[in-house]
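Record 1 of the preview.
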Amino acid sequence: MRPILLEVVVPMIYNLDCNYRPHRFIFDRLASRRNDRRSCENEYPEDWKLAVDYVSNWIREITDLYRHRIKIIVIDAQSPAGIWKQVRYRLFKFPAFIVDKKLTYVGWDRRQLEVLIDQRIHA
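->
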């Protein structure tokens, strides 16, 4: 039995590490003072950070629940692939889940997502 594919389309939070050599070079040229260099992560709204944490925990729980029966791919909603998925599957809110390229679910009800996954497993 091949595993069910679960694609998770969600906006991601980026943390630009200023210690990474190419980034440090750029920031040294752009920032006049060291305190101008702040993590991009601090610029996101608190509710967005909480939502990303919640989805991360949710993905871990789904992985534990379905183990070898599921393959999960997380897609940044702001990436070209994420934008394509939004258009292709008409996903207008987040988090959005695509189950085996056939069924979609948008929202926070874990039970509804599990029902869709179970449908694909038993199909």
